[in-house]
Amino acid sequence: MSKNKLVVIGGNAAGMSAASKLRRLKKNYEIVVFEKGRHTSYASCGMPYYIAGKINSHSSLIARSPETFREKYNIDVRTENQVESINIKRKLVIVNDLANNKTFEEKYDKLLIASGSSPVVPQINGINSGGIFTFEAFRSGKEISEFITNNKPRKAVVVGGGYIGIEMAETLLNLNIDVSVIDMAPQLMVSMDREIAEIVSMQMQKDGAKVYTDESLKGFDVTSDGNVSVVITDKQKISADIVILGMGRKPNTKFVGEAGIELGVKNAVRVNQKLETNITDIWAAGDCAESYNLLTNSQNYIALGTVANKQGLVAGLNIAGQSEYIKGVLGTAITKFNNLEIARTGLSEKEAKSAGFEFVTAQIESTVVASYYDKKKMTVKLVAEKNTGRLLGAQIVGSLGAAKRIDVVATSIFSKLTAKDLMLMDLSYAPPFSPVWDPLQIAARKLV
Amino acid sequence: MSKNKLVVIGGNAAGMSAASKLRRLKKNYEIVVFEKGRHTSYASCGMPYYIAGKINSHSSLIARSPETFREKYNIDVRTENQVESINIKRKLVIVNDLANNKTFEEKYDKLLIASGSSPVVPQINGINSGGIFTFEAFRSGKEISEFITNNKPRKAVVVGGGYIGIEMAETLLNLNIDVSVIDMAPQLMVSMDREIAEIVSMQMQKDGAKVYTDESLKGFDVTSDGNVSVVITDKQKISADIVILGMGRKPNTKFVGEAGIELGVKNAVRVNQKLETNITDIWAAGDCAESYNLLTNSQNYIALGTVANKQGLVAGLNIAGQSEYIKGVLGTAITKFNNLEIARTGLSEKEAKSAGFEFVTAQIESTVVASYYDKKKMTVKLVAEKNTGRLLGAQIVGSLGAAKRIDVVATSIFSKLTAKDLMLMDLSYAPPFSPVWDPLQIAARKLV
C-alpha cells in the first residue's frame, strides 16, 4: 500500500485527464494535483471566441472545477500551488503555496509532470507595457476582454500568423478594430505550404486585415501612462492600442531539467510512446512533453489540447499499471478565419522534403458540396510518397463544411493508406454534403 | 486493331465514368454508348432538392451532355437507344432506336453493362393513377415539380422511409404540403438500428410529418379524372393528392440474364472486384451490378451514385487493360432531414448479428462542437468486434456538421482499425469544429 500516491504537477488537460483516469481504475490511490493557477481544466482554445463575445460566460470555459475533482473524483487539487523543484532521489516535490507564500515538501510514489507551456515572449523594449497580451493563463481571456471594453482600442497588431494569430485577427476585426498581422516568416501558417497559406492571407486581407510577412518585431513605443502606442518592426512603425502576441509556445520545464530528468526537442520533457520519462515512476504529458511523430518516426513538440488530453489519458492508464501507448501524432490541426476553414495533417510539401521523402503532390479546387446545390469552394492539397503512393499529408482551405474532412486523411495516414485507397474508398455522398466524388477523392484521383 | 470497340449499355454515372476513363487512356478505341433516355450523366440524387426549389435549373443536374461527350471525348453517345438483348456468341447487342422505332445490331469487342436500376413499384390497384410518382428517370424530377405547381397538392403520402422517402418528406413539408410517411418495416431507415432511426422519426414528427411504421401499402382510391385521392394501407385510409414511392430499387438486368450472363444478389449482374462478369470481355458496373462488401466478404446490392462512379472508373481502367479492383464497399450513406443530419457505414447492430459477428456497441450523445461554443447535439453509435475491438460500423444523427464524420469511421473500418486506434488517433480539434475529444472518439472511449 505504500506505492499508492500519485502527485501531478499541473491541473489542466493532461494532468486532470491522467488523474481522472487513474481514479476510475484505482480507488485506493491518493492523488494530489498541484496547480499554480486558480483554475483546473479550462479550455484555452476557447479564449478568442470568448473575447469575440460568442461565449456568454468566462466560466463556461472551465470543464471541471477543483471542487468537482475533489468531491466527485476524490482528487486533492491544490490550486495556487506551484511546484518549484523535483527531488528524484528522495521522491518528493518542493511546492510553493503562492497564496500563503510558504514552501513545503510533498512525497510521491509516482509523479506526472503536466506543467504545460507558456507563450514565447521576446525580451525587447516595452514588452511589459499595458495593452500587450499573450495567452498565458485562464485569466488572459478575461483581461483582454476587459481591456477592450475599458480602453476601446481602435488599432491592433497581432504578432505571429499561426493559429492564435489568425483566430485573434478574426476576433478583433469582428469587434471593429483595425488589425495588422505581422509574421517574421515569408508566409502565414508556417505549418502549411506557401500557396495554401496564401489563400488564407488573401481572405484575411479581403476581410480587412493588413498582413505583413517577412517582418520582425523589434520593439514598441509607449505612452506616458505606460500603454503601447506603436509596434516597431524591422520595416515600419504601426500604430497600435492593443497588441496580441501569438509567437508560439515553449514547455514549462526548467525545473524538470534541473532535477535531472531528460529534456528533448525544444526543451520538452523527453518521453517515449508510453509517456515515460527517463526516470522510473515519472511520466510527462501535455504541452510540457514531446510527441512522437508517426510519419517521421521522430520526436516533435506540439502544444495542442487534443494531444494533451490523449497523452494524459494514456499516462493515466500506464500509471494504473497498464501498458498503453500512443502510436503517434500527425500534427493534425484546424481553425477558421471568418467563413474560411483551414486544416492540415501529416507533412506539408516542405516538411516532406526536409524529412527526406521522395514525394508527389496534387492540388485541386472543388465545390464543397454538389455544385448544383451550392457553389461554395474548397482547395485540397495532398502529399504522397513517390513510389508507393502512401499518403503523407493534406492541407484544406475552404468554405463551411470543408475542413473537418482533414480527419479522413489523418485516419488514412495513420493506416498507411495510399492515394488509390483514398480514391476508391466508400465515403459518404449526398448533394448537401459533398460532390459525388468527395473533394479528397478528386485530389487523390489527380495524385494517382 | 480489331479488338478496339467498346459498347456501353447505359449513359449514366457508371457507364460514362468508364467510357471517359477509357478514352483518356486509349485514343484509338471506338466507344459507343446506348442510353434509353434523352440525357447522360444526370444527378438523380439532386431531384428532391430540385423539387424543393433549392436548385434553379433542372439542366444544372446534368453533369455532361451527350454533345459534350461526343465533341470533347469522341464518345458516340446515342440517346433514346435501348439495348434489348445481348448475343454473347456473336458479340453484338440488339438495339431499339426508340425515336424511329427501328431495331438494329451493333457489334462489340468489349461490352460494359451499366443499365442502371428502376424503382420498385408494386403491381396494385390504381398504381398507374395520376399523382403517383417514382424517381424513374431524369424527367421524373421535372414531372413531380410541374405536378406540384399545376395541381397544388395539399396532402402527400410518401411510401418508404429510406433515403428517398426522408428527402422527399423534407421537400414536401417545406412546400407546405401535409406529409404522411408509411413504411412496412417496424422503423424508418432499415439500414440503421431502431433506436437511431427513432431519433430521425421523432425529428420528422416534430417538424410536422406523420410517420406510420409496420404499415403496408395495399391500394389507392382514384378520382373520376384518374388522379389518386386516397392511399389504402393494411391499417387505414390516408387522403392524398400526391404519392411518392421510395420503396427501393431493382437492377435493370432482365435482358442480361436472358443472354446467359450470370446474375446474383437481387438479380444484379454478378461481378468480381474487377467488375468482370462471368463472360470474357463483358463487364458490369453501377446500379445494375453487385458490390463486394468489405466486412461480410459477400456480395451486396447497393444502388448509389457514389458506388456507381467508382465502379465505372475501375471498369474503365480494366477495359483499358489495367488490373484494378475495388477493395469493397461499406454501405456508407448520408442524408438529412431539415437540420438533422443522418449517416451510417459498415454494419448496424442487427446486420452484425445476422452476419455472425460477436460484437459490442456504444452509443453516446455529445455536442457537435465545443459545448461552450454551441450546444447543438449529435448521437454516435459504434459497433465493434467483441474480442479484437475492430470497428464494424457506425451510425450518426445530429445537427449541422455532425454526419460527414461518418467518413472517418468508413476509413477506419476500411483500414481494420480498432476502437482504441480511433480513440487515440490524432484528429483535428478547434472549438468551432468539435469538442476536444471528437464525438467519434468519445464513442470509441466508451467502447474501449
Tag the structure with descriptive keywords:
homodimer; alpha/beta; 5-stranded parallel beta sheet; globular
Overall description:
Chain A has 448 residues and is an alpha/beta fold. Chain A is 26% helix and 28% strand. The first copy, chain A, contains 12 helices and 25 strands. In chain A, the strands form 7 sheets. Chain A has a 5-stranded parallel β-sheet. A 5-stranded parallel β-sheet of chain A has the order 9-16-10-11-12.
Reconstruct the topology from this structure.
Two copies of one chain form a homodimer.
Chain A: E1 5-9, H1 13-25, E2 30-35, H2 47-51, H3 66-73, E3 76-79, E4 81-87, E5 92-97, E6 102-107, E7 110-113, E8 117-119, E9 132-133, H4 138-151, E10 155-159, H5 163-174, E11 178-182, H6 194-206, E12 210-212, E13 217-222, E14 228-233, E15 237-239, E16 242-245, E17 249-251, H7 254-258, E18 282-284, E19 291-293, E20 298-300, H8 305-319, E21 333-337, E22 340-346, H9 349-354, E23 359-367, E24 377-385, E25 391-398, H10 406-414, H11 419-424, H12 439-447
Parallel strand pairs in A: 1-2, 1-7, 2-3, 7-18, 9-16, 10-11, 10-16, 11-12
Antiparallel strand pairs in A: 4-5, 5-6, 8-17, 13-14, 14-15, 19-20, 21-22, 22-25, 23-24, 24-25
Helix pairs in contact in A: 1-8
